[in-house]
Amino acid sequence: MPAFGNEFERETLPYTDAVKEKTDHLYPKVASFIPKFEWRLHAPYIAAINDLKKQKNAVILAHNYMTPEIFHCVGDFAGDSLQLAKEAARSDAEIIVQAGVHFMAETSKILCPEKTVLIPDLRAGCSLASSITGADVRLLKQKYPGVPVVTYVNTTADVKAETDICCTSSNAVEVVEHAAKEFGTDTVILIPDQYLARNVAAMTDIKIVTWAGACEVHERFTAEDIRELREGNPGVIVLAHPECPPDVLAEADFAGSTSGMSNYVKEKQPNNVVLITECSMSDNVALENPKVNFVRPCNLCPHMKRISLPKILRSLQTMEHEVLIDPEIIEKARRPIERMIALPLKRQSMYNHLHAPEVAAVEARI
Ligand code: 13P
Ligand code: SF4
Q1: Residue 193 beta carbon below 6 angstroms from any ligand 1 atom
Q2: Ligand 1 in contact with 169 (CB < 6 A)?
Q3: Which fold has domain 218-295?
Q4: What is the pLDDT of residue 91?
Q5: Picking from 131-135, 154-158, 260-264, 345-349, which range would have the lowest pLDDT averaged per residue?
Q6: Model pLDDT for residues 273-332, shown as the tens digit of each residue
Q7: What is the pLDDT of residue 347?
Q8: Whose CA is nearest to atom 8 of ligand 2?
Q9: 50-66 tens-digit pLDDT
Q10: Which atom of ligand 2 sits closest to the CA of residue 103?
Q11: Closest-lying ligand to the alpha carbon of 169?
Q12: What integer pLDDT is reported at residue 3 of this predicted model?
């Protein structure tokens, strides 16, 4: 059993002939990124994880920010938050291992309460999810009676339980417009990401009340960073995640969810591109688009990076850490997620700056 007392401690499993046979067909997927000597460290874990998945009828849902050896070699389904939630809902596996962060594992559990949902490291959190509680949402609802609450999926089950409908970065504009129409209001509460809220506000006439939460990865990018990148890389196409501040999006050519950015590269095959988001995104997308050159400034998400092959293996071996949620909360939190999933998504999210991205109010710990 590998030792996991220390984050960087890893018992090296041996690279045997049997491992080689089980993993050789996977190496070409990552060969341009992972050198052979490093592959020999990953391959035994990949072989063991893929064997155990079959034995235990388990699937691994891998977010776009997972490192390439996870994303391309053990992930059964890969994608953005919305795609992973949809996969969880339709999966017939008995066990779901979430290669992502805790709120994603909770979303899977809420959608599949009868399944065992595992998160390989309980500390894989999210600055947005930890910025707001269910009690905060109840206070917001008292302050804005009758105003629908749209909650970003990057939140805990308790917060979702207080929500009318969830959204992700790939459908936020549509969900906000849908909620306003359903409730007959001109104002919507969109929490907890103040930047996503401002970016959505730039795309709709609906007034938005938000929360002072932020993604610790995306809020670090600045408009100046983008201008410098363009100066240093003439003609580069800039794609940004909508969790970035509005002035960053104003400098970008396109903004969309992690999968929105990935699809843009696949479809348009730009000569030179930069993804203003978490580091592993470019690595994964570059492997699938060998003709595209990637400029790679990025910020690491420390939470996503807690998930590793040894921890995934250990999770499957020991069935730790199982995500458990109070059944009453599951019941309440499922409705807003299912409402979101039921909405037809008409456009791949594309934000721009049609008008000043102001929001009606920003609340925090009211
Ligand atoms: P996506 O829904 O775009 O995958 O975003 C999730 C996330 O955590 C981005 O920081
Ligand atoms: Fe949360 Fe940001 Fe990490 Fe995504 S990148 S999980 S929003 S902290």
Answers
A1: no
A2: yes
A3: Rossmann fold (3.40.50)
A4: 86
A5: 345-349
A6: 999 999 999 999 999 999 999 999 889 999 999 999 999 999 999 999 999 999 999 999
A7: 55
A8: 126
A9: 999 999 999 999 999 99
A10: 6
A11: 1
A12: 38
Ligand 1: distance of its center to the CA of 125 in Å? 13
Q: Which two tokens stand for residue 145?
A: 């009676």
- Phi, psi torsion values for 266, nearest 5 degrees: -60, -45
Every domain range in the chain assigned CATH 3.40.50.10800: 17-126+303-318, 129-214+327-363, 218-295
Cα separation, 290 vs 327, whole angstroms:
46
CATH class held by domain 129-214+327-363:
alpha beta
Whole-number Å distance, alpha carbon 49 to ligand 2 midpoint, is 25
Q: Which CATH number fits domain 17-126+303-318: 3.90.550.10, 3.30.450.40, 3.40.50.10800, 3.40.50.300?
A: 3.40.50.10800
Q: Measured in angstroms, how far is the CA atom of residue 301 from the centroid of ligand 2?
A: 6
State the distance from the centre of ligand 1 to the C-alpha of 154, rounded, in angstroms.
8
Residue 17 CA, ligand 1 centroid: distance in Å: 38
Q: In what order do the strands lie in the sheet with 254-255?
A: 254-255, 237-240, 272-276, 293-295
Residue 330 CA to residue 112 CA, distance in Å, equals 10
Mean pLDDT of the chain: 93
Q: Cβ(304) to ligand 2 under 6 A?
A: yes
Give the Cα separation of 328 and 114 in Å (integer).
Answer: 14
Q: Is the pTM of this model over 0.85?
A: yes
The CA–CA distances, whole Å, from 169 to 4, 174, 244, 271 equal 34, 10, 11, 26
pLDDT band at 357 (very low <50, low <70, confident <90, very high): low
Gap from CA of 255 to ligand 1 centroid (Å): 12
In this structure, the residue with its CA closest to atom 2 of ligand 2 is: 215
